[in-house]
Specification:
By secondary structure, this protein is α/β, with parallel strands linked by helices. The longest helix has 33 residues.
């Protein structure tokens, strides 16, 4: 009897961070093209919400909340490994049994094992260690990792990453970090972000699509439209300073009757928590805008104050002439839509991705000089056609780069099967 071909995925969700949603949906969509008979199990840190949103009954959602991983998945996987040495096969719960029987676990965390994000190191470890204990190969698909200067992060990363069957660097900077760490180059490769290959057909949810459709119908005029995607992460670091900067950027571009669409790239409308919830920053920005901006400018701003999926995010950005964002996968949507994109972000993940389009000059650290950022908007608006042409020219190469990791993954799965 032929063993079922099973693929587990961790690090992505349907609810919350829509960049994680894009990577999850694209991974499933691409692997279905390569291996249409594959069964998928998603280990989610929002399992109940994801089950409620999922429109595909053939995909299983398993609980991978931090407490569940620490108190259940890891200890049971460890006990299974220990007992296997004496010939005892421990019965496992459904989630771990699925993971044990998989050909591969795909870790699609956007940024992992990073010195600046040490509080997430336990989660990074627990995301892949149970699979290793169960004997399931782990492939870390395109993501940013490192730097590894912190001794704890360096030791843990060296131990775990060297045991992965594949580690895909999202760009040259991550690749250099992995080389410095001493990871076997035979098990590493460089590939562009997974979501470079996102297609509307890959969508697994339909959140508020009618509201988005109504919004897009309002944008059918040929006045220029600028999209703004604020980040709750940067908001928590800079608060009103960040909000004032965004309003300054809007005011600097408000001439000639331009319109603006402000939307969340991570949204949990039913939650008051800030994690993976840009609606918190968006609502704070709206309150400040109502206090500060003239009514004529306020009337030109469309506020997307509700949950939207990644497909809707991409549709909004594709309808705009310029994108201003502090979110990585909003930037990816801008690049794939060939919409000129100004980034106000953090970490090397933005720079190494934009390098593939020779667009590094359009990215600024959120702590950069305000005047320097403000000057970038009129400069980009005066050269939109040139920026769009450059993005159009470089996009196919980046999409081929992204696709290469799925070719490699198919080889691994076929060999394992």
């Amino acid at each position: 009897m032929t063993q079922a071909l099973r693929i587990a995925i961790i690090g992505g969700t349907l609810w919350g961070n829509r960049g994680a949603q894009a990577m999850l949906e694209t991974t499933i969509g691409e692997m279905r093209q390569h291996l249409p008979q594959a069964e998928f199990g998603v280990f989610s840190y929002y399992p109940e919400k994801d089950r409620a949103l999922l429109s595909d009954p053939t995909i299983r959602i398993f609980d991978a909340r931090p407490l569940t991983m620490a108190a259940k998945l890891f200890p049971l996987a460890l006990l299974y490994r220990i007992l296997s040495f004496v010939g005892i096969r421990l019965p496992l719960p459904e989630s771990l049994a699925f993971l044990r029987d998989c050909q591969v676990l795909c870790d699609i965390g956007g940024i992992t094992f990073n010195d600046e994000r040490l509080k997430y190191l336990p989660f990074n470890v627990l995301s892949i260690l149970p699979a290793m204990l169960l004997g399931t190969p782990v492939a870390k698909l395109s993501q940013a990792t490192g730097p590894f200067e912190n001794p704890i992060n360096r030791m843990v990363s060296k131990f775990l990453l060297s045991r992965c069957c594949l580690v895909v660097a999202r760009g040259a900077i991550t690749a250099s970090h992995l080389k410095k760490l001493g990871i076997n180059p035979a098990h590493t490769m460089v590939a562009a972000d997974i979501a470079m290959l996102y297609k509307p057909d890959y969508a697994l949810t339909t959140e508020n699509v009618q509201q988005v459709e109504a919004l897009l119908n309002k944008l059918t005029t040929r006045r220029q439209v600028i999209a703004v995607s604020p980040s709750v992460l940067v908001y928590k670091k800079r608060y009103e300073e960040y909000l004032h900067l965004l309003l300054d950027l809007i005011e600097s571009a408000a001439a000639d009757g331009r319109e603006f669409v402000i939307f969340p790239n991570a949204s949990r409308a039913s939650s008051s928590k800030t994690h993976n919830n840009d609606l918190i920053a968006l609502r704070a920005l709206r309150r400040l805008a109502q206090q500060r901006l003239p009514q004529t400018l306020l009337s030109s701003i469309h506020w997307v104050d509700y949950d939207i999926n990644y497909g809707s995010i991409q549709r909004i950005i594709c309808a705009c002439d310029l994108l201003i964002t502090s979110r990585f996968h909003a930037m990816i949507a801008g690049l794939t839509c060939t919409t000129p994109t100004l980034v106000i972000g953090w970490s090397h993940k933005y720079q190494e991705c934009l390098a593939g389009f020779e667009m590094e000059s359009t990215a600024f650290d959120y702590s950069a000089d305000t005047q320097q950022i403000l000057q970038a908007v009129p400069a980009m608006l005066s050269h939109l056609a040139e920026f769009r042409a450059q993005l159009t020219e470089r996009l196919p190469e980046n999409q081929r780069s992204s696709a290469s990791q799925f070719d490699r993954l198919k080889e691994i799965i076929t060999w394992k099967n």
